[in-house]
# Entry
Amino acid sequence: MDNKTKKQLAIGLIITLFIIYFQVILGGTTRLTGSGLSITRWDIVTGTLPPLTDKAWDDAFQLYQQTPQYHKLNKGMSMPEFKAIFFWEWLHRLWGRFGFVFLVGLFAYFYRRLDRQTVFRFGTVFALYAAQGVLGWFMVASGLVDMPWVSHYRLTAHLLLAIVLFAYILWFAADLLLLPSQKITHPATQRWAYALVPLVLLQIAYGGFMSGLHAAMFFPSFPDYNGSWLPANLFGETPFYKNFFEGIATIQFIHRTLAYILAVLIIWFWIQVRRVVTTNPYLHKTTNLLLLLLVVQISLGATVLLLSKQGIPVFWGVLHQAVGLLLLSTLLFICFQYNRVKAINSSTQN
# Structure
């Protein structure tokens, strides 16, 4: 594949990243507005269009009225109120379809110029995208039987798979854009960058638990927990392991504590990278951006907590999720700039 094709394909993949990024934002909006269970069927083709007649709207509303969410949380909802929550779920699903069609078009446009490795990468992207759609419906189905909301386990899995898809496309694009001569060989900072990735992913996973359980509403204060420096009922669930997955106090404590740990580690990483001398045009800029996003993200987290006394604020909650994905993306792009093979060899020699 020639350099011109690589650059053009990278631009197309970056556009795809923006599409997926907006999809994640729509997903957060759908969750926080309680819209995710408003569409009770998964019609891949016919579901592209919303109801177009009064009868079609009545049929959709009647299906929703059979769900636990309607009976337990939204009893007596009016048709305009139903249309409002229907809109967000419909747009979320429609945008997901649009992203898949865009990817198919991108692949078809470049197909004759692609090498075998790039075709395989596209295949992986398609598989991840399809799995994300299936997992999305699996998540919705968890709220249509007994619970008036979706399982926070499935919600978090849906979010993490979206991040895996996003990260894979980001790596795909970065591999096309970065020349071998621009890769960095610096084992010390590389190890720091790689170590930060699983911590950020863990933090995002606990953010998914926070969202799925509406945990912010139980301790809407900062930096304390409703006046105490430790939340009430911390590690109070039995059996003990449930605290880490279902205990609201423990989940919020872990989410906050991970934020403090990441703050210290990212600041230390930034200091170390500032000392690296390199001709790479991106390393120092992206590391500065990482530090800036860290400050913004922690500030947004505190804002969401303080505004959650009467319910989680949709705008600030979605913005918190959006900046979190930007922070992870920046960190991943930093990792992609390292020459992995040379770095490992240098590390072994040292």
Summary: The chain has two domains: 1-177, 182-350. The longest helix spans residues 79-110.
